[in-house]
């Protein structure tokens, strides 16, 4: 855990070196809307229910932030493997969708402080008896979402898999897992927990984490004023218990409190 804190502190320290004299939030305020990029098939952070409505932890948190700032939140779905390029090309104003803070990404975007500590886990079929630890995945076929942190996590497995199959989203990977076409899916813990709770008797996770990963909201490197405004509002939401309330709704516990990480 100390390594994670040091890593995030270094990344955020670099972010503070960027001049905050831009007018990025003033521009958003004048337009009256904040455009947010996301993968809309990432439960429970952001996904669509049967009628097409977006829902999830990040949706609730960002919509509350929009109310406090007096701006409309406009959600812009995009392919996750190109989400940073889409941000920097101006397709939207930030990425708020369970994005893991990494040094590689921090070279391309600015991050808020972590608002959730997540991690990568392995989901296998519920009746699977071959695997009791991550070592057992060696030589097996592993699935993961293309462009996600799961790809990096696979490199940390104690024994290499025989093949890695990449998918455009997690639901497609889980469908192949259920059908027996792959042996396991490496996935965010929050997503894995959500899937298992909704499909009892279909999947389970192997014990422990492959990696622990902090989630942050990402902005273009020139948009420090916007980042600072969003950060202050999130801090206020943590301080007054709003983030904890949203967390209880989606996870049945408060996973937004840094003192518990």
Description:
Residues 1-6 and 13-19 have low confidence and may be disordered. Strands 1, 5, 6, 7, 8, 9, 10, 11, 12 and 13 form a 10-stranded mixed beta sheet that branches. With 261 residues, the chain is α/β, with parallel strands linked by helices. It has 2 domains: 2-117 and 214-260, 3-Layer(aba) Sandwich (D-Maltodextrin-Binding Protein, domain 2); 119-211, Periplasmic binding protein-like II (D-Maltodextrin-Binding Protein, domain 2, 3-Layer(aba) Sandwich). The protein is built from 10 helices and 13 strands.
List the helices and strands and how they pair.
Blueprint: H1 2-15, H2 24-31, E1 33-38, E2 41-42, E3 46-48, E4 54-55, H3 57-69, E5 72-77, H4 83-88, E6 94-100, H5 103-106, E7 110-111, E8 116-125, E9 141-145, H6 149-154, E10 163-167, H7 170-179, E11 184-188, H8 189-198, E12 203-205, E13 211-219, H9 224-239, H10 242-251
Parallel strand pairs: 1-5, 1-6, 9-10, 9-11
Antiparallel strand pairs: 2-3, 3-4, 6-13, 7-13, 8-11, 8-12, 8-13
């Amino acid at each position: 855990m100390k390594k994670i804190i040091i890593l995030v502190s270094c990344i955020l320290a670099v972010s503070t070196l960027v001049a905050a004299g831009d007018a990025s939030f003033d521009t958003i305020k004048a337009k009256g809307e904040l455009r947010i990029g996301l993968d809309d098939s990432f439960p429970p952070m952001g996904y669509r229910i049967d009628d097409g409505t977006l829902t999830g932890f990040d949706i609730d948190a960002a919509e509350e932030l929009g109310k406090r700032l007096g701006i409309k939140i406009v959600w812009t779905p995009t392919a996750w493997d190109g989400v940073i390029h889409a941000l920097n090309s101006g397709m939207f104003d930030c990425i708020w969708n369970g994005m893991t803070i990494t040094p590689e990404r921090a070279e391309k975007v600015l991050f808020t402080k972590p608002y959730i500590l997540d991690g990568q886990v392995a989901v296998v079929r519920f009746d699977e008896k071959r695997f009791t630890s991550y070592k057992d995945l060696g030589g097996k076929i592993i699935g993961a979402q293309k462009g996600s942190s799961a790809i990096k996590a696979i490199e940390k497995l104690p024994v290499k898999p025989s093949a890695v199959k990449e998918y455009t989203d997690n639901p497609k990977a889980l469908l192949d897992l259920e059908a027996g076409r792959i042996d396991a899916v490496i996935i965010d813990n929050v997503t894995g927990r959500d899937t298992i709770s909704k499909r009892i008797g279909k999947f389970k996770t192997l014990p422990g984490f492959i990696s622990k990963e902090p989630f942050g909201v990402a902005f273009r490197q020139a948009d420090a004023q916007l980042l600072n405004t969003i950060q202050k509002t999130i801090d206020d939401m943590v301080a007054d218990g709003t983030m904890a309330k949203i967390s209880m709704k989606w996870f049945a516990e408060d996973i937004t409190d840094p003192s518990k990480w």
